[in-house]
Q: What sequence folds into this?
């Protein structure tokens, strides 16, 4: 008579165990990711305040990053003569804006040239408006640009310095609403992933 | 009845040929699939061509050059990324080993189209002539699109 009771108890315990396991494997990851949002990109351990001013295409008006406090800013360094990596990233960023829907108005994408000799202001404005009319293009002299590259740790190697094929930083940088550099994403991230990282920063309160 | 059936089979064969011709070009063991051209965002800028090259033959082959009439020149390049860095080198050829596939995709191998004709727009069809070490000349039609 004892045996069936034991079996029933074991069965209930087993079912409970499986139930808890199933529940936690299905519901726990999204709950945890809501509490501790994780970026697809690499987040900086000690986010630094970024500030710079550069001429903006097409009119040469001054772009002050400080004026964009309250918005999430995406920064990408590239050059208009780039046939593969830059247009792929810019097109992905355009698609990212589509993924964001209404939240796209909370984001400003900024392209900074790494080829100031060739990328004049009109050139840059035409190039960017091809991908997305909302994208902003910055240029300047090397003396103006180098300190900006340095703030982001961007490396632009000359032909003589280039070893193999690696010539420039191709990361996308995300700046939060308070002007802190928070995340950098390597080339090749999908628009949905870029959008998810941006959503984390968009959800943060303005400070 | 038999005549009717013959016609149907004939029509089907023509249809199938047209569909296949639209998807790929084939010569010898080499077939080209999913070919597309990204236009230059600005007049006189650079564009790129991407595709998959399948080698169904038993001999290794290689894409050695590309000829076009809608840009000043075409070069075979390879983009590379490592960590945060990216760059590009010109290569002499893209190997297409026997029974294998070579992919020309964004961020990897591509045909760089220098000083593209500004009249080439999204939706256009353009012709690329590919030259292979063994298979020789293969002409293909490519759609111009953003991605």
A:
């Amino acid at each position: 008579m004892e045996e069936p009771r034991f079996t029933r108890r074991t069965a209930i315990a087993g079912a409970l165990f499986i139930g808890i396991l199933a529940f936690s494997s299905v519901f726990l990851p999204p709950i945890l990711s809501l509490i501790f949002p994780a970026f697809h990109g690499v987040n900086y351990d000690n986010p630094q305040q970024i500030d710079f001013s550069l001429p903006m295409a097409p009119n040469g008006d001054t772009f002050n990053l400080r004026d964009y406090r309250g918005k999430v800013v995406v920064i990408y360094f590239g050059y208009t003569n780039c046939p593969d990596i830059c247009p792929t990233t810019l097109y992905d960023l355009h698609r990212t804006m589509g993924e964001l829907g209404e939240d796209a108005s909370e984001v400003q994408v900024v392209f900074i040239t790494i080829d100031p000799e060739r990328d004049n202001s009109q050139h840059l404005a035409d190039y960017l408006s091809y991908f997305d009319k909302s994208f902003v293009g910055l240029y300047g002299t090397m003396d103006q640009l180098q300190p900006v590259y340095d703030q982001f740790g961007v490396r632009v190697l000359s032909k003589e310095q280039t070893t193999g094929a690696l010539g420039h930083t191709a990361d996308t940088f995300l700046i939060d609403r308070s002007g802190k550099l928070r995340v950098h994403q390597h080339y090749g991230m999908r628009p949905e992933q870029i959008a998810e990282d941006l959503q984390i920063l968009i959800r943060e309160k303005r400070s | 009845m038999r005549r009717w059936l013959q016609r149907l089979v004939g029509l089907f064969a023509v249809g199938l040929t047209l569909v296949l011709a639209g998807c790929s070009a084939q010569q010898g063991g080499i077939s080209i699939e999913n070919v597309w051209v990204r236009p230059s965002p600005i007049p006189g800028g650079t564009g790129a061509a991407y595709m998959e090259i399948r080698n169904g033959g038993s001999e290794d082959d290689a894409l050695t050059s590309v000829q076009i009439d809608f840009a000043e020149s075409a070069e075979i390049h390879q983009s590379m990324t490592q960590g945060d860095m990216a760059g590009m080198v010109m290569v002499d050829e893209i190997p297409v080993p026997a029974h294998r596939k070579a992919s020309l995709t964004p961020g990897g191998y591509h045909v760089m189209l220098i000083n593209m004709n500004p009249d080439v727009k999204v939706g256009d069809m353009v012709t690329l002539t590919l030259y292979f070490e063994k298979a020789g000349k293969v002409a293909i039609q490519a759609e111009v699109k953003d991605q």
Summary: Confidence is low (pLDDT under 50) at residues 17-23 of chain B. DSSP finds one helix and eleven strands in chain B. Residues 2-23 of chain B form the longest helix (22 residues).
